[in-house]
Design goal:
single chain; alpha/beta; 2 domains; 6-stranded parallel β-sheet
C-alpha cells in the first residue's frame, strides 16, 4: 500500500468516526435539549448579556470585537468547526477563559443554561440549523446576512422567531446607521415617494472570477486539516470530500454553500429601500444577463430584474441588480464624481479595490432621483441643482441611538427593539433567494407572493425548498 492510499484510508476512517459520533449526538441530545421550549432569560438592566459565538474567524472575529466593546456582554463560549486554525487564534487568545467547542450541539448540551444569546458568523448555508436550535432553546439570535440559504429555511426561521419569542437581528449593520434614519425620515416627509425603479450595483472583483466556468465537476478531495471537524462544517448538506476551495470565504462562490454577490452585498445596498417602500416579494425575477453561467458557481457578471407590484398608494417598482466587473449599470445625468466611499468597511480579505462605481444604488421616483452608497451611506438628490432647490424642504434626521451591535444587546435586555429582526430581514433575504434561483437556472421566473411559489418553473420550486438535508440533520427542520 503506498503512502497516498494509507493517507486516504486514515482520512476516511477519521471522517467515519466523526460521522458516527455526530449521528449519535444528534439522535441523543437535540430532542432532549429543546423539548421543553424554554423561555428566554430576563436580563436585568444592569446585567450583561451572556453571549456564545458560533464562528470565531474572519468576519465573525470582527463581530465578536464589535459586540464586546459595547460593554454590554460577557463572552461565555466560543465555537468553530476549525477551532485552533490560524484565523481563530486571535479570538481564542483574547477570551482564554471562554469554553471552546467544535460543535455547537455539544456546546448547547453542556452549557445551554449559561447562554442568553447566540451570534452566528458562519457560511450562509449553515445559518439555519444553528439559528433554529438556539431559538428552540430560548436563546436570542444575531445571525449574519443573508439569513439563510433557501427560501424555505428563511420562512421557518421567521416562524421560529414568533414561536419561541426571542429577539432576532440580521447582521446588515448599516440598518442601524445614518442611511436607515435618513430614508425613514425622507419617506415619512414625502421626499421619497412614488419610486418606480431602483438600480443596485456591486461591481468589484469576486473570488469566483478566478475560476474556469467550463469546469465539469466540483473540486476533488484533499486531506482534511487536523484542526477541522469537516462533517460538522457540512452540516445539513450532503457529504462531500474536503477541499480548501470550500472554506475560509471560498464557500461564497458555490451555489451549494453561498449566496454570491447578491446575498453578500444586497442586504447592505437595498435593505432600506425594501423595508420603507414595503416591497415584500416580487412577482417576476428576470435573469437579463449571465456571463460565465455554469452549474456550480455564480456567474462572473449578472443582471437580475425584480418586479414588485403596486402597494397601498405606491406604484409598481423594479429593482435591477448589476454585479460583475464588466457589467456597470447606466447612471443618470448629474450622477457626480466617483470616489471611494469611506463609509463602506473593507472585506475581511483586504481593501476594496476602487472601480468605476462604488457599490451602491440609484433610486428613481416620478419627481426626484437619489444617489446612494452601501451600508450606512446616506442618499443625495441629483443633480446638484435639484438638491439645492430641495434643501429647505428636507426634514431633520435623527441620529442613531445605538449601532447594530448595541441595538441587539439592548433589545436582549428589553430596552430597545432590533432594527433588522427576522420579520423585516426575512422577506429581504427571500428576495435574494429568489434572485439566486434565477441565476442558477439562468431563467425568467414568475412568482406568486401569496402562495409563495413559482408559477412557470417546476425546478425553481424545488430550489425554493433546497437540497434534502442529511438524515441526522432533519430534526432542525421540525423545530
Amino acid at each position: 500500500m503506498n503512502l497516498q492510499s494509507k493517507s486516504s484510508r486514515r482520512d476516511f476512517l477519521r471522517q467515519l468516526s466523526v460521522i458516527t459520533a455526530t449521528a449519535a449526538l444528534s439522535g441523543l441530545s437535540l430532542e432532549t435539549l429543546s423539548a421543553k421550549n424554554p423561555k428566554p432569560r430576563k436580563v436585568g438592566t444592569n446585567e450583561k448579556v451572556n453571549l456564545a459565538f458560533i464562528g470565531v474567524g474572519f468576519r465573525a472575529n470582527e463581530i465578536i470585537k464589535d459586540l464586546y466593546k459595547t460593554g454590554q456582554c460577557n463572552i461565555v463560549a466560543l465555537c468553530d468547526v476549525d477551532m485552533g486554525a490560524a484565523h481563530t487564534l486571535e479570538i481564542m487568545n483574547k477570551f482564554p477563559d471562554a469554553p471552546q467547542f467544535h460543535d455547537y450541539r455539544k456546546m448547547f448540551k453542556k452549557m445551554a443554561n449559561k447562554i442568553d444569546a447566540v451570534v452566528i458568523g458562519t457560511p450562509d448555508f449553515s445559518h439555519f440549523p444553528a439559528t433554529m436550535l438556539a431559538m428552540s432553546l430560548g436563546k436570542h439570535v444575531y445571525v449574519e446576512k443573508p439569513m439563510a440559504h433557501s427560501f424555505r429555511e428563511v420562512e421557518l426561521m421567521m416562524q421560529g422567531a414568533k414561536k419561541y419569542g426571542v429577539v432576532t437581528q440580521m447582521g446588515n449593520q448599516g440598518h442601524s446607521d445614518a442611511n436607515y434614519f435618513q430614508f425613514k425620515a425622507w419617506k415619512e416627509a414625502g421626499i421619497i415617494k412614488d419610486v418606480t425603479a431602483v438600480t443596485a450595483h456591486m461591481n468589484n472583483a469576486r473570488r469566483w472570477h478566478k475560476f474556469d466556468s467550463k469546469i465539469t465537476s466540483m473540486p476533488g478531495a484533499e486531506p482534511v486539516p487536523a484542526t477541522m471537524d469537516w462533517d460538522t462544517w457540512l452540516g445539513t448538506e450532503q457529504f462531500r470530500d474536503y477541499n480548501k476551495d470550500y472554506v475560509n470565504g471560498q464557500w461564497r462562490c458555490w451555489y451549494d454553500y453561498g449566496m454570491g454577490a447578491l446575498g453578500d452585498w444586497g442586504a447592505h445596498i437595498v435593505d432600506t429601500a425594501h423595508e420603507f417602500l414595503e416591497l415584500g416579494l416580487p412577482t417576476e425575477i428576470n435573469m437579463l444577463y449571465a456571463n460565465g453561467h455554469n452549474p456550480f458557481f455564480f456567474p462572473y457578471s449578472s443582471t437580475i430584474q425584480f418586479k414588485f407590484p403596486a402597494r397601498k398608494d405606491m406604484p409598481a417598482c423594479d429593482i435591477t441588480w448589476y454585479d460583475g466587473m464588466d457589467n456597470l449599470p447606466p447612471v443618470p445625468a448629474g450622477y457626480g464624481n466617483v470616489v471611494l466611499d469611506p463609509n463602506i468597511p473593507p472585506p475581511s480579505n483586504g481593501q476594496i479595490v476602487p472601480s468605476k462605481l462604488n457599490p451602491g444604488k440609484i433610486i428613481y421616483s416620478k419627481e426626484l432621483t437619489f444617489n446612494g452608497g452601501s451600508h450606512g451611506s446616506t442618499l443625495s438628490i441629483i443633480p446638484e441643482e435639484k438638491a439645492k432647490e430641495m434643501e429647505s424642504k428636507l426634514p431633520v434626521v435623527s441620529k442613531s441611538p445605538s449601532n447594530h451591535f448595541l441595538n441587539f444587546l439592548l433589545a436582549c435586555k428589553g430596552q430597545e427593539k432590533t432594527r433588522s429582526p427576522f420579520e423585516v430581514a426575512g422577506p429581504l433575504s427571500q428576495v435574494f433567494c429568489l434572485g439566486v434561483i434565477a441565476q442558477q437556472l439562468n431563467a425568467k421566473l414568475k412568482f406568486d407572493p401569496k402562495l409563495k411559489k413559482f408559477t412557470n418553473n417546476d425546478m425553481a420550486n424545488k430550489l425554493l425548498v433546497g437540497t434534502e438535508p442529511r438524515k441526522e440533520w432533519m430534526y432542525f427542520y421540525k423545530l
